[in-house]
Design goal:
By secondary structure, the chain is an alpha/beta fold. Helix content is about 30%, strand content about 20%. The structure holds flavin mononucleotide.
Length: about 350
């Protein structure tokens, strides 16, 4: 019988490559059913529970978490070229107790590092990717080995080269998305919460016209395959309206929130990562991500009422650890809830959520 209190997990003291090579085997456990009819961008699923892009480094990690009660499995973001991981540390626990309610609001000048992991950390991987021939073969094998009723999403990102225009970026997104689908992905996610220095030093999701160029190219490349765009922290309803109007025609779903960015301060007062912000992920972004989900739901519903434009399905991401957190996302307007930090620090989390449903 599997010991659920001591399940294998990502080892933050080891490198990304070590963890890639040391994926656990699937386990045999009773997975409690979640009552209700659930849907992920038009695909029937057994629960609203999924793993967000990040914890599933390869197909063996995908199958491990599928065995632990997740129904939608997102393969960690891959690229059209091989890319090494940032130097360690890749995961730095942060202390969010000085923040109001322990929650990130966005715009923090810095957050303090913590000696031990609670439920929130700064994430610094730089979206590493194996070479396309490696991840494409792995996705193909994974789809064959994964139980048919589980949904395999592959997350992709473009890799900008010097002198590239936004159309080059769009073509690179489309190339990766097409490869993912050819390899057997049931759905594609494009990470738009990444820097896009083609046009400015903002992020793609904050540049609606460029985001739409990329989303249109992806849609063209993948036909009717379900397509989700992952976005970061949106500041207000105007930004949400501009983004959803621009990319809405091309996508089936919107996943939010990638993280809330902030620099991280060491105990001696110095800033880690050369003072550059890092994505803060885990429990301390729950309220900000819930608020964003509510706001975007309202924006897309208003547009639906005004113009009869089919609203994108929302994938709630950020800070969920419990059945109550999942319920709150569903009430906020999400159709699915995907977890990253929780699955890494509490690998049996989906079983606990299902048991408490
Ligand atoms: C270790 C780790 C790696 C991540 N890598 C990616 C990634 O490759 N692509 C991506 O879109 N998001 C990535 N994320 C962000 C997660 O998908 C998610 O948006 C974020 O962690 C917030 O969810 P959480 O609070 O449940 O962790 C990563 C997160 C973690 C913790």
């Amino acid at each position: 019988m599997t010991d659920l209190t001591n399940l294998p997990r990502y080892d933050a003291a080891q490198t990304y490559d070590w963890n890639y090579a040391h994926a656990p085997e699937p386990v045999e456990v009773d997975v409690p059913a979640v009552r209700g009819a659930w849907d992920f961008c038009g695909l029937k699923v057994a629960s609203p529970l999924g793993v967000a892009a990040g914890p599933l480094l390869n197909g063996r990690w995908v199958r491990y978490y599928a065995s632990l009660g997740f129904d939608v499995l997102t393969y960690k973001t891959v690229r059209s070229v091989e890319r090494a991981c940032y130097a360690m540390p890749n995961l730095v626990p942060v202390d969010t107790s000085p923040l109001a309610g322990g929650q990130m609001a966005g715009g923090e000048a810095s957050v303090p590092a913590a000696a031990t992991m609670g439920r929130t950390w700064a994430v610094s991987f730089g979206m590493p990717s194996k070479a396309p021939e490696v991840w494409r073969a792995d996705v193909e094998e994974t789809r064959k080995l994964l139980p048919r009723e589980k949904v395999l999403v592959v997350s992709v990102v473009a890799t900008e080269q010097p002198g590239w225009t936004i159309d080059d970026m769009a073509a690179d997104y489309a190339r990766c998305a097409q490869w993912a689908v050819e390899s057997g992905a049931d759905a594609v996610e494009t990470n738009f919460s990444c820097p896009n220095v083609c046009t400015s030093d903002g992020q793609l999701y904050q540049q609606p016209a460029d985001a739409a160029r990329c989303a249109a190219a992806v849609r063209e490349a993948i036909g009717r395959t379900p397509y989700v765009v992952k976005v970061g922290h949106i500041r207000n309803a105007e930004e949400a309206a501009a983004l959803t109007a621009a990319i809405g025609p091309f996508v089936d779903g919107l996943a939010m929130t990638n993280s809330v960015a902030a620099p991280v301060r060491a105990a001696d007062g110095t800033l880690l990562f050369d003072g550059a912000p890092r994505g803060i992920c885990g429990a301390a972004i729950l309220e900000a991500s819930l608020a964003q989900t509510r706001m975007v739901r309202q924006v897309v519903t208003q547009r639906y009422l005004r113009e009869a434009v089919k609203p994108a399905a929302l994938v709630g991401v950020g800070g969920a650890f419990s059945a109550e957190d999942v319920r709150r996302y569903l009430v906020a307007g999400a159709a699915s809830v995907h977890l990253a930090t929780a699955v890494m620090v509490e690998p049996g989390v989906a079983l606990a959520i299902r048991a408490g449903w």
